[in-house]
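USER:
Working in pairs, take the chain set out below, taking as long as you need, and write a paragraph about the fold.
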Amino acid sequence: MKKIPLFFILFFATFQWFSAQAKYETFQSQKLGEERQIKILLPRNYESNTDKTYPLLIVLDGDYLFEVVSGNVDFLSYWEEMPEAIVVGINQYDKRYDDCMYSAQNGLPIESGAHFFEFVGGELIPYLERNFRIGNFKIAVGHGDTANFINYFMLKPDPIFRGYVAMSPEFAPQMIDYLPQRLGSMEQKIFYCLSDTALDTGSIKNMVSALNTDIKSKENDNVQYQFNSFETPSHYAMPAQAIPRALEFMFKVFQPISKQEYQDTILKLEGSPVAYLNEKYQAILESYGIEKPILVNDFKAIAAAIEKNKLFQDYEELGKMAIKMYPDTLLGLYYMGRFYEESGEPKKAMRTFESAYALDEIGGITKDMAMDRADAIKADFGY
């Protein structure tokens, strides 16, 4: 019997979980003059975290893209590769052509396309913000015609969405002129992920290639841009690869410090690794509006860099941060003890390590480790 790859086992296990938890609602739209079916997936711990807000992903073509996006969001957030998020899919079925209608003269939404644009921005998102705990960071996801449509939101002076996942877009001809100009002048931080596949039609590949070239020529620190061109998946299968790639890119700074980040960046810093840690979490707040507690493993990575590069003076600031973040644990006092130990204050170091013994262990930093340090100081100095 053919063995199923672990990836597919994990994917379908996740799929079964969120299928059971997804909410299906009928939304009566005045803008569209009809009902529209939407799918909503809330984070696993949504009900228990009553003071927490979440990023929002609006998924066009929700009838087939919602499950792919939701599965990846659930999986990646479980492993802290991205924050927990609310995912909302808009079913379009046979309305897709009407929803995406644009003018042949200027490529902008007209008639039913303009109504759908107003429905998403003027009805659906305000409704979601009233009824769910949604933060400031919002992402739009589209494929083919809808990958063209999501860009209209970016053309507004103050875009609703901060992230865009445009997969194999069927661009309005004028869009490849609009987008580079808009991205080049963007004054707020935007994440833009563009992708295609070698099996797309010639028109898609040509327009995506031209757009990619133009976007790359625009230098704007506010724009975080990613382009992926896949070789083997079909136009319809490609989202299964493009979506996790895009989410990982958009939330890269949110992710825990990796071995590669530690080796390639932190160990080679000219400045303080503690300053790097502060900047990383400040970037998370500024980019996503999320005040994320500093992970214990991130503290340990910075401590390892301090030891490796003998930057022992940085232990003082790291210890203060750890005491504030994890006051009931010995993490902060252990770092403060190392600071005093390396700063020529052995008695103060010994007492700090002994004080740590009364607190909780955390992240592999144990009471025995603290007492071993204290005992070694006693032995060396005869206290």
